Amino acid sequence: MTGGWQPIGQRAARVGLIGLGAMGRNHLRLLSAREDAELVAISDPLPEVLDAATASTDAKAYIHPQEMLVKADLDAVVIASPTTTHLTLGLAAVGRGIAALIEKPLAATTAEADGLVMASAETEVPIQVGHVERFNPAVLELGRLLDQGWLSTVYAITSRRAGPFPARIRDVGVTIDLATHDVDILSFVAAERPTRVSAETAQRVHQDHEDLMFGLLSFPSGSVGMLDVDWLTPAKRRTLTVVGEEGMFELDYLSQRLTFTRSTDTSNPELIGGYAPTFEGESIDLPLASGEPLAAELDAFLTVVREGGRPIVNAEDGRWAVFVADALLRAARERRTVELDEVVAR
After folding, report:
1. Helix (H, G, I), strand (E, B), or coil: what is residue 248?
2. pLDDT tens digits, 147-191
3. Fold assignment, 137-255+257-290+324-340
């Protein structure tokens, strides 16, 4: 491996794309339309899919991604292949000095994620992890308002990420594939990382892995997080609720809607007919400029490729999400609360 990676400056980045599944096709659409990037190579194991993709671009087709990484002249690569391929392909990319955007989860296991973190650190080649929800306009506004002090204390964070079973996911379960999103977001909202976790899982329709997980995360400040993740709900649901001293934020990732409900004074209730009315606070819709999170994610990645600096979600962030997901699975398997420092010690 070579060290001393350097950003490319202001010229258009030469980008490769590995994988033409659901996320890969979205990357293809966005990369093909960018003026600051040239999509020069695409790899996918299905010839008919690959031919269709390259027919509309000037990119060269490769059946084998390792061949693409060796032969194509690349500044950067987007790895949108199955999770179990991320380690091998990520190592191959950074070993050749190619900046990598690796779709979440970073890897299938913590040990594999460790390998990618170490490789990025040793080569100085940046790895950005595709935790796309970090670039959702509603999440960005929520983070800004929390930084402004709208909630002086966060009591609880509840996340729901549910939907129908995706036939494409065979190599990992719902915890590694989906809950890694929410582990990252809850740590971002709490502005700290959890210290212990507990969980329950179930396997209903998936042949090999869990397709439902309820998890609890305990943070050093006393904030508590709850994860509700499944592949069993017949319609997509993507929501986040943050309850604190001054009120409650409610966020819908899909509609990019953010509301705030103010807390009310419950110490001096007004009695009506001898009974106190409900203490329901006033809710307001917060204005947002809508945008496509994946496009913003690519903006951030290509900025690092051109100018250098730390990716907004780097390999260590991605590794942490996988680490906590592994701990949640362990907690469910062993039917106990798992202290995260205990896992580190082992």
Report:
1. strand
2. 999 999 999 999 999 999 887 667 789 999 999 999 999 999 999
3. Dihydrodipicolinate Reductase; domain 2 (3.30.360)
